Amino acid sequence: MTEKRGYMVGRIIEGDACVAEGADWLALREPRFAYALTQVGPLPLRRKTDGFAALLDAIVGQQVSTQSAAAIWARLEAAGLTEAAQVATATEDALRACGLSRQKIRYAHALAAARIDYPRLRQLPDAEVITTLTAVPGIGTWTAEIYAMFSLGRADVFAHGDLALQEAARRLFDLSERPKEKPMRALAKDWAPWRSVAARILWAYYRVSTAREGIR
Q1: How high is the pLDDT of residue 215?
Q2: Which is the most buried residue in 86, 99, 205, 214, by most CB within 10 A?
Q3: Burial letters for 187-203: b for 16+ Cβ neighbours within 10 Å, e otherwise?
Q4: What percent of the chain shows pLDDT beyond 70?
Q5: Class (C level, CATH) for 2-47+156-210
Q6: Which of 79, 73, 148 is closest to 118 using CA atoms?
Q7: Given this model, what pLDDT does residue 8 score?
Q8: Would you kindly state where each structural domain of the chain is located, as residue ranges?
């Protein structure tokens, strides 16, 4: 555990060595993870920068293909609309021209107006990070968990409602049906304190076993 300004923050995934350590730990305790790792090869780090742009990027990617999300994000970058101050003053027409729907324009403006203290998020426990982020319209639990995992590097966060993770778990653990969020939480409980690495394994296994893309 890492202590920052009085808070206890769990293990932070800083680099590939951290991911490999978590994968080794999981493989020793769960033979099916050991098998999955033989199928997927080295796991990606997936670390991203934190801050407003990372959350806006997550909002852009909601319910669209990875290709569409990338195209919209490229237009936002070209228009100089990836920072809070810029988005806060951007008109709906300007954001719509980049490809954002009316709903996502509302979410983008709400995020810009939220004035989240992003450096402080780095110092909060996982649950408080999720609570802070989900208070903003347009940021659901999945988006908050993804931010905690990849922008903050939290090692023990898992996106229990993610359909690809659920389907990968069904396939890997030979379950009769795809586990919904509640049984997924029960299943993932045994993977602490490396649930973020377990998610990486399952996403990679999903791509291999279905020959489809996972998350962007």
Answers
A1: 47
A2: 205
A3: bbeebeebbbbbbbbbb
A4: 94
A5: mainly alpha
A6: 148
A7: 67
A8: 2-47+156-210, 52-151
Counting beta carbons within 10 angstroms of the beta carbon of residue 34, is it exposed (0 to 12), middle (13 to 18) or buried (19 or more)? middle
Which pLDDT score is estimated for 62? 86
Tell me the sheet residues that pair with 7. 4
Quote the pLDDT of residue 3: 44
Question: Can you list the residues of the chain whose pLDDT is less than 70?
Answer: 1-8, 212-216
Asked if the domains 2-47+156-210 and 52-151 are classified in one and the same CATH topology, the answer is no
Which of 31, 63, 22, 64 is CA-nearest to residue 157?
22
CA distance 89 to 14: 35
Q: Cα 60 from chain centroid?
A: 13
DSSP 212: S
Phi, psi dihedral angles at 14 (to 5 degrees)? -95, -30
Q: What is the pLDDT of residue 5?
A: 42
pLDDT at 41: 86
3-state class (DSSP) for residue 189:
helix
Superfamily for the 52-151 domain = Hypothetical protein; domain 2 (1.10.340.30)
pLDDT score at 1: 47
Q: Give the three-class secondary structure for 126.
A: helix
Upper half-sphere CA count for residue 120 (Cβ side, 13 Å) = 7
Q: Assess contact for 196 and 158: CB atoms under 8 A.
A: yes
Q: What is the per-residue pLDDT for 63?
A: 84
